[in-house]
Write a structure and sequence with these properties.
It is a single chain. By secondary structure, the protein is α+β, with helices and mostly antiparallel strands. Among the domains are: about 80 residues, Orthogonal Bundle (Helix Hairpins), CATH 1.10.287; about 90 residues, HSP40/DNAj peptide-binding domain (Sandwich), CATH 2.60.260.20; about 70 residues, Urease metallochaperone UreE, N-terminal domain (HSP40/DNAj peptide-binding domain, Sandwich). The protein has 11 helices and 15 strands. The chain has a 4-stranded mixed sheet. Helix 2 packs across helix 6. It is flat, with a radius of gyration of 40 Å.
Length: about 400
């Protein structure tokens, strides 16, 4: 029995053996193309969209598809009723449309939620609203990061209005239901065969109208001010460390709690000590050349004071020494890192005549064996020059 309807597979442009994913992919492509909001005033596109939706309603449902494959359109009368496909009810494939509407109306799907009444992520503005979290960047010295300190900071913060307790209404006055939306916080309008639900432009979605705004906050429920906060900086922090102060952020509205304050620390560079990975720190220590040559001891700075460092004979610039437990304290209070000392051999300067003579006598007494690195460099350079000359000679002969 002919119904005058096109074959559902033909409507979606897929074969009868198409998989569920292929059916869904084709539907999304066509729905994007013919959606009424992209073709406003185009009745043909609206009719096409209805036809696509009806076809997908059947072919996306395994049982309905089986009935359709066996009996055609007549086999679906029990599913749709005598009036055929019912566009007034919710689609069973709303979830399949969500990705499409996310692209059509922007990330977040606000229009999608209004259109299909999802409301899952829409928050009512009639109730309490927690204050926003705030961030504050604070620069501290290396010493403060090592040993801890207390800092007093002043922040411009919007706090809950003390006069109206965040309600926005003058004490003693009452709010009224918004007449424009009937207190629902949203207005409904038609878009093709859809009902479009939008935030009420009069009450901004609260559903209530403040008849007499608070004179101090002018109806906002918050007051701008400057708050002075004493901040405890624990020992061992480093650049990027984050301190959380619960309830010290922006004030809430209508009795809701305040947000949190996050303080991000930035440690100024130090002339002597440099923070390494974890709780280890580094410093460079100059060593007189005679101690580097003969061996001995030198004083090196640590966070706890000077420490004696034993230098072996023949120590060269760049050699690293480690002093265990002389680094930065761990923020959790368990242990300390190490101090790494990089030796810099310091050449003697500002010599008097006696010192110059002694150094000249020392130089005359030295041989290549006393400077093995210099001897090694010279030997390898001479080998390089020999190979170079050989190659140049071969090119000349050819």
């Amino acid at each position: 029995m002919a119904t005058g309807k096109r074959d559902y597979y033909e409507v979606l442009g897929v074969g009868r053996q198409a998989s569920a994913d292929e059916v869904k992919k084709s539907y999304r492509r066509l729905a994007m193309q013919y959606h009424p909001d992209r073709n406003q005033g185009d009745k043909a596109a609206e009719t096409k969209f209805k036809e696509i939706s009806e076809a997908y309603e059947v072919l996306s449902d395994a049982e309905k598809r089986r009935q359709y494959d066996q009996f055609g359109h007549d086999g679906l009368k029990s599913s749709f009723g005598p009036g055929g496909f019912d566009f007034s009810r919710d689609f069973t494939h709303v979830s399949d449309l969500q990705d499409m509407f996310g692209s059509l109306f922007g990330e977040g799907g606000g229009m999608f939620e209004d259109l299909f009444g999802g409301g899952g992520r829409r928050s009512s503005r009639t109730g309490p609203q927690q204050g926003a979290d705030l961030r504050f960047d604070l620069e501290i010295s290396f010493e403060e990061a090592m040993f801890g300190s207390h800092q007093e900071i002043t922040l411009p913060i919007a706090e809950q209005c003390s006069t109206c307790s965040g309600t926005g209404s003058e004490p003693g006055s009452k709010e009224e239901s918004c007449r424009h939306c009937g207190g629902r916080g949203a207005v409904v309008s038609s878009s093709g065969f859809f009902q479009v639900r939008q935030t009420c432009p009069v009450c901004s979605g609260s559903g209530r109208i403040i008849t007499k705004p608070c004179r101090d906050c002018r109806g906002t429920g918050r007051q701008k001010g400057r708050k002075r906060i004493t901040l405890r900086i624990p020992p061992g922090v480093e650049t990027g460390s984050r301190l959380r102060l619960a309830g010290r952020g922006e004030g809430g509205v209508r009795g809701a709690p305040a947000g949190d304050l996050y303080v991000i620390l930035h440690v100024r560079p130090h002339d002597i000590f440099h923070r390494e990975e974890g709780s280890d720190i580094l410093c460079e220590a100059p060593v007189p050349m005679h101690i580097a040559a003969l061996g001995g001891e030198v004083d090196v700075p640590t966070p706890d004071g000077f420490a004696r460092l034993k230098i072996e004979a023949g120590t060269e610039t760049g050699r690293m020494f480690r002093l265990r437990g002389k680094g930065a304290p761990s923020v959790d209070g368990h242990g300390r890192g190490d101090l790494h000392v990089r030796v810099i051999v310091e050449v003697t300067n500002h010599l008097n005549s006696k010192q110059k003579k002694a150094l000249k006598d020392f130089s005359d007494a030295c041989t290549e064996d006393n400077y093995p690195m210099a001897h090694k460099l010279r030997t390898r350079a001479e080998e390089f020059f020999k190979v170079r000359d050989s190659l140049n000679q071969a090119k000349t002969e050819t």
